[in-house]
Amino acid sequence: MTFRQFLSILVARKLLFIAVLLGVLVPAVVVSFLLPKSYTAVASVVVDVKPDPLSAIAYQSLMTPGVIATQIDILQSDRVARRVVRALKLTEVPLIREQWNDANKGQGDIESWLVERLQKDLDVKPGRESSVINVIYKAPDPRFAAALANAFVQSYIETAVELRVDPAKQYSAFFDSRAKEARESLEKAQNKLSAFQNEHGLIMTDERMDVENQRLNELSTQLVMMQSLSAEANSRQAQAAAGSGDKMQEISGHPVVAALRADLSRSEARLQEISSRLGDKNPQVVELQANINELRQRLDAEVRRLTAGVGVSSNITRQREAQLRGELEAQRAKVLRLKQVRDEGAVITRDIENAQRNYDNIMQRQSVTNIESQATSSNASILTSASAPVEASFPKIPLNIALGLFVGGLLAIGVVMAAELRDRRVRDIDDVRELLGLAVLGVLPGAKSTAASSGAQRQRLLGSSKSSTKAA
C-alpha cells in the first residue's frame, strides 16, 4: 500500500477516524480535569564525604557504595517518620484524627497509622553521581507538602546525630575497662622481658647476632678454601706416591730442578756428539758419561726432596682443615644458641609490641568515642529547603492531552484500516492497477471539476495515450 492510498482511505473514512479519536481524547481530557490535584515539594540534603574531624580514624573512608543507600534507608525508616509526627504534632490535628477514626474506627495506634500514611507519599532519591539526597513529598496541599518535606529532612539530621552519639556513649564505658586491662597486660609483658634479660645476662639487640653471623660466614668461607687446598694437596701427594713427582708443576718448575735438567740435556747432547766422533772408549766420552750419571742422581735426589715437601704441605693443609672445621662447628653451635635465646626474647618482645599496640588502639578509640558522645552535628546538612509549589505535579493535563492524541490517533488509524480491510473499495488509480494489472489510460473528471482541472486531466490522458502507443 502506497502513502497516497493510505491518505485516500483516511479521507474516505474521515468521520470514523474523527469519531474514534474524539472517543479517546475527550475522556482523557475530562478525567485529567476531574482527578484531584497533587503537589510535590522537594528538599535536599548533602552527605559530607570528607573525613569527620571528630572521628577521622573511625570514618576514614566514608564515601563507600553502601553509605548513600544507608542514609536513604534511614530517611525512609519508621524512626524518622515518628519524629516527624511528633515534631509537627499531627496526632493533635482534628482533621487527621477524624480520618483515623473513619479508617480504623478508633482502633490501633494513630501514630503508627500516620507513619504508614506519610511513608506512602514520601520518595527519596539519590543525586546522580553525587552525595546529594533529594526528599520528595506529595500532598493535596502545597504548603503541607513543603512542611512535610522539610520536617523529614530535619528529623533525618536529628536521627543521624542520635545514631552517632548513642553508641558512642555506650562504648565509652566499655573502652574504659578495656584500657585498664590492656595497661595491665603491657606491664606484665615488660616485666617478663626484664626478667628474661637478667636471667641470660644480655640485651636483646641484633648487633651481637650480626657479628657472630659474620664470624660464622668467614669461617665457612675459610673452610671451603682450605678444603679446596687440601684436595689439591692430596692429589699432588697421590701423584708423588705413584712415582710421577717429577711431572708435578711445582717440582718441574722449581729453579734447581730446571737447572739440573738443562745441564743434563746439554751433557747428553755433547755426549752424543763426542761419542759419534771419538767412539765409546774415549776418555772424554767416559768422563762425560760419568758427569751425566752424577747429574741424574742429583736430579732424582732433588725430586725426592721436593716430593717429600709436598707430603708435609698436604699434612699441614689437612690439619688446618680439621682445625677450621672444629672452629666452624663451635661457632655454629654458638650462633644456634644465640638464635634460640633471641627467638625466646623476640616472642616476649612481640608480646610487648602487641600489648602496646592494643593499648594504643584502645586509648585512641576511647578518645574518639568520648568526643563523639559529645557531638551535636552529623555528616549530613540541609542543602535546599522545600517551598510550597505553585503548579500541581499531578495530573499533567498537557501531557495527558498529548498522550490522548497519540493513542487516539493510533487507535483511529487501526479502526479505519480494519474497516477498510473488511469493505475494500477502489479509491485511487493505484487500486485499479493492483486489481486489474493493466495500465491506466486516463481518468474521467468528476462532476465538481473545473474547466482548468478538466484541461489538465485531458492533457494527462493524451500523454498517457501517446506513451502507450509508443510502447506498443
UniProtKB/TrEMBL annotation:
It is found in: Cell membrane. Residues 348-418 form the Tyrosine-protein kinase G-rich domain. Residues 3-87 form the Polysaccharide chain length determinant N-terminal domain. Keywords: Cell membrane, Coiled coil, Membrane, Transmembrane, Transmembrane helix. The chain crosses the membrane at residues 397-419. It is a multi-pass membrane protein. It comes from the Bacteria. NCBIfam families: EpsF. This is Chain length determinant protein EpsF. The gene is epsF.
